[in-house]
Amino acid sequence: MPALPHFIGWAHTRFGKLDNPDVESLMAEVAISAIEDAGLEAGDIDAISVGVFGAGFSRQSFDAALVGAAEPMLARIPATRSENACATGSAALYSALDQIEAGRARRVLVIGAEKMTASSGADVNDILLGCAHRRTEDGAGSFAGIFAGIAREYADRYGNPREALALIAAKNHRNGVRNPYAHLRKDLGFEFCATESERNPVVADPLLRTDCSMVSDGAAALVVSADQPVSGRAGVAVRARAQANEPMALAARHDPIAFDGARRAFREALRVAEISLSDLDLVETHDCFTVAELLQYEAFGLAEKGKGAEVLAEGRTQRDGDLPFNVSGGLKSKGHPIGATGVSQHVLAAMQLTGEAGDMQLSTADRAAVFNMGGAAVANYATVLEALQ
């Protein structure tokens, strides 16, 4: 069996409304930093894999070449760009892993980035709605509207999840206080997250502002290698990974709130890794909306259908629970710069596994899972990471 590819270096900007004028400057902030963190030089990199959603956030395209424009030392290294909606960062990472596992590269720099806050609110809304199936779902009015429909269907079938959604939002914002990269480092509390107010209005009924991830700028980078780390760090092995897709249109699925693609990807990654949920120490998951995290509990096997609220009531996914979810604060607190998200999730999980997570650090972190999805659980990516001894 060939050696597992692993992460040997990384870098991460703060997420939020940043002064960086564009994606080029965001990528420049992390590219060389990640290479140096790995104990390498630019010439040691065989390929570059870039994740930028784009889709109208900027007039500039050809984002793979922007890495070399920002850092001339990287301009002659083969670079390609991946795009897969909100899973763009993981798509770029999996492309890099494919190159390494095929023997076409030894070390690949993966960069995920997005500049969103320079666009108007109306433009952001329209761009993100493109992650839904326009022909059948444009009437939802926004991507939040898509997930609001999912939340309403869940309520009709299983009962109002308002309390569960507020518990997820409060948990992730509380965790985000510890994350120096997070867009919003504020413990909002359960009552605020549970209650409609002037400061927490309805975005798309029944979702409140605290149920929706924020529009953010940011970038993250990883060096993925077939070789052992040279920087003295133990490194993080990619023990298993899986991707599963579902029809883009919710109406084309057998059950639009079952998140079957998420279930298949996550459980396949565990199967390939030859582990179970109980073997994981943490999960970084895609809480673009609080109802998404709730449904992922059920898809991943933490709870039966309609019983996700019980996981929260028992405190199982809290920081001190038996399987902490989103100790980084998740997309809810950290922010969601589309192309950067998947790379960021893997970086923050890697930091936990190497004991470098600072105030976020868990007392035990040997094995982690990362779940990143594009659209309403259309493109689903699940990765199992393990600390190298």
Describe the 3D structure.
Helices cover 35% and strands 17% of the residues. It is of the alpha/beta class. α1 (23-37) packs across α2, α7 (162-176) packs across α10 and α9 (260-273) packs across α10 (290-300). The radius of gyration is 19 Å and the shape is globular. The relative contact order is 0.19.
For the biggest β-sheet, the strand order reads 3-2-4-7-1-8-11-10-9
Report the radius of gyration as a whole number of Å. Answer: 19 Å
Overall pLDDT = 96
Order of helices and strands: EHEHEHEHHHHHEEEEHEHHHHEE
DSSP E strands, number: 11
Spans with pLDDT under 50 lasting ≥5 residues? none
The main sheet comes to: 9 strands, mixed
Write the layout of secondary structure elements.
Layout: E1 6-12, H1 23-37, E2 47-51, H2 63-70, E3 79-82, H3 88-101, E4 107-114, H4 121-129, H5 134-137, H6 143-158, H7 162-176, H8 190-194, E5 202-204, E6 207-208, E7 218-225, E8 236-245, H9 260-273, E9 282-284, H10 290-300, H11 308-313, H12 330-334, H13 338-353, E10 367-374, E11 379-387
Helix pairs in contact: 1-2, 3-13, 7-10, 9-10
What's the quick description here?
The protein has 389 residues and is of the alpha/beta class. The chain is built from 13 helices and eleven strands. The two termini are 18 Å apart.
List keywords for this structure.
alpha/beta, nine-stranded mixed β-sheet, two-stranded antiparallel ribbon, 13 helices, 11 strands
